[in-house]
Amino acid sequence: MCKDLLIPMLAGSQTSLDPRLTTLLRVIAECIMFNLATLSPFSARTGQSVLDWGSSFDRLFPADDSATSPFLGGLQSIYQVMLRVNVRLHRTIQSKSDLSAPASNTREHFDLWRQLNELDNRIPQLYHDRDVKPKSIELYKRKHKLAILALRIQLCKIARPLASPTDNDIRGYVSEAVNILRSLDIRELGNLALRWPLTILACAAYDDKDFDLFTAKMQDMQSVVDPANREKLSSAQTVMSLHKRKLSEPQTVLEADRNRDCNLPQRIDLLLEPWRLLPLESSLLRH
Question: pTM score, two decimals?
Answer without folding.
Answer: 0.84
